[in-house]
Amino acid sequence: MATVGERIKERRDELDWTQDDLATKANISKSFLSDLENGKRNVGADKLLDIARALSLSLDYLMTGKDAKKKATREPEKEVQIPKALAEFAGDEGISFRQAIALLEMQNQIIAHRSSTKKGHLDKVDWQKFYEAVKEFL
């Protein structure tokens, strides 16, 4: 089972972020992040929340590796891949993980109804513009 630090590093790598990038976005020191990723330090709830927000992940996932809501309702787990552009937008704007997933699902619904658009273009979406257009529904 992966540790909190390993899950942080895995997500940071998915986003192609350096430790400096994440440390800046989460308002923590690079040395603290390095120690955390290498299992040399523990993290408090307040800093973990900052890290989760920067990475657009839930606290449940960072702490346990699973989403507690899905476990409680016994829904089958499915992995959601958040495009890098959406993750960066969500981190910059302070949008919650659930809101980022909702944006992605809305965008996927639009794409599903357009035969000429392909799902592979989600990193080219202007997430700021899309968010402004749909935020009242989130």
Automatic annotation (TrEMBL):
One of its GO terms (molecular function) is DNA-binding transcription factor activity. Keywords: DNA-binding. GO terms for cellular component: cytosol. Coiled coil: none annotated. Signal peptide: none annotated. It comes from the Bacteria. Residues 8-62 form the HTH cro/C1-type domain. Pfam families: HTH_3. SMART domains: HTH_XRE. Transmembrane segments: none annotated. This is HTH-type transcriptional regulator ImmR. It comes from Fuerstiella marisgermanici. The gene is immR.
